[in-house]
Write the structure tokens for this entry.
Amino acid sequence: MDYSPGRITGARLGLVRAVAAEDQVPLANSDYRTAIGQEPRFLGHIVLSTCAGHKIGTHNSMNDLLIAGAGIAGTALAIHLARRGHSVVLVERGRFPREKPCGEGLMPAGVAALERLGIDTAGLGAQFYGIRYHCEGHMAEGHFLLSGAAGLGRGIRRRELDAVLAEVAAKTPGVTLHTGARVTGPLFERGRVTGLLVEGQPIRARLVVGADGAQSRLRHVLNLNRASRRKRLGICRHFGHLSAAESRGYVEVFLGHGHELYVTPLRNGEILVAALADADAIDGRIEELFRRWCEAQPKLASLLRNAEPASDLLVTSPRSGSARRRVLPKFVLLGDAAGFTDPITGGGMTQALQSAEMLAQHLAVEPDWTEGFLESFDSTREKMLLDYRRLTSAMLWLGKHPPLIGPVLSAMGFVPSLFSHLLSVAGGARGLLGCRRFISTS
């Protein structure tokens, strides 16, 4: 087995069950492979092996960075640091391509972050100019503030985005990507995390990063998890062959009783329909509830009248949570693993890309990687996310007070500049007071 930099190991190319059982994501459509076709395109260099035959081997030398999780945050960080000359081991228990429940709307700041990684987003997804909110006859429309390409979001399927990021990481000298490899726990030496046990084999590094997602195993094992007080369920499905021929240049959000529906435009004329719902609003079979919610929105029902499912129904819960601490000596949580805010405002993928780039920049200016720099990074990251979290809390509060939703949407319709400003807050480009939240110095 070749573990040289720039290789992917342990993956068998093909369609796979996307999410493990412990992620609480049941898949519910046996016609999935027929709906999306066979053998999705994946260009990274892959060493094929079966799961049973996969061996991690022993990394005798000390790596600079060891990352658990090859999602958006983990792969972005690996690429940034390897390009700065660091050795990175990236460990992923799944295989690419894979589906993942997600709203799949990347805000303009996230598009810019992908471009800085050298990824051409034009061929990856469908562009959108803003977001429209609908509720009982009221509609508010907001555009992103920046003009031209800098003001465009992209609707990108996660199976494609994750595969592209993994491909770029695999081709980056200095990165070793193991797929189909499960992290069984952290390594401790003198009271510090010094590495990970991967398939029972120890791998050590100067810095260990937990980027293993919203249900982070490392966050739980290290007793850093803080349970979510509000239980929300996420449901999504892709559709093709749509009835309406109108241009879909917006993410459309339909507000219902106890739930919201998000419609994201994707390439090849497809859309994603995603629902977020309070757990107490779930009564009956999830697939039937999802269908009823869609049919209760006339515009969405018309769009889906003759549509065909293009993916399984994916379900995940909970959709918010936090960590008691996000950094320890020589260890940092990144992306959703560091605490994930309810996705009602749609900035999760953008935040993952921005926080990964921010951590890379902190590591670049602190060559010795002393303990204090992680605290400094965490403080800067929290400042970047603070206004986003305030906006999310306000949206969740509004959702609990349905009589106020209509008047608020009407007010936003009369002051579109305010709505556009709030979209920029949600997308990570601005703070509530108008300042830029994160500017890359790459």
